[in-house]
Design goal:
Elements (H helix, E strand, L loop, with lengths): L1 H22 L7 H11 L3 H13 L2 E2 H5 L6 H13 L3 E6 L2 E6 L1 H13 L6
Antiparallel strand pairs: 1-3, 2-3
């Protein structure tokens, strides 16, 4: 009986974690949520600078991207994860190297959402 209760509690906990992950991840078609995610990701000047560098210079390895910012790799991966969840950047691996590319469509979606319905953000 106790095992069933623990199993049920574990399932409820895992379900709540999944719901949290869904809320903080880009969802195609949910423009309001996506706009909030992108604006939140863009709130930090460091992330905006990283995106500006990617937009200007194109895809590059994570190590090369963070050189001018003097970040540690774990810190850079944290910020990259936020940008990736907001769908502003995309990453892929080639061998041991992680490459980052700027997703122009995401910011175009954000701009069109802000132009069409800025009152919906509240």
């Amino acid at each position: 009986m106790r095992e069933r209760k623990q199993h049920k509690e574990r399932q409820e906990y895992e379900k709540s974690l999944e719901e949290i992950e869904i809320r903080r991840t880009f969802t195609k078609g949910d423009h309001k949520k996506n706009a909030r995610l992108m604006l939140s990701a863009l709130a930090l000047p460091l992330r905006r600078q990283m995106i500006a560098r990617l937009a200007k210079e194109g895809s590059m390895s994570l190590t090369k991207l963070i050189e001018p910012f003097r970040l540690t790799l774990p810190t850079a991966q944290f910020h990259l994860g936020i940008l990736e969840r907001a769908h502003i950047v995309e990453t892929y691996k080639v061998g041991r190297h992680r490459f980052v590319s700027f997703n122009k469509k995401a910011l175009a979606e954000l701009a069109s959402f802000l132009i069409s319905s800025p009152k919906d953000l509240g």
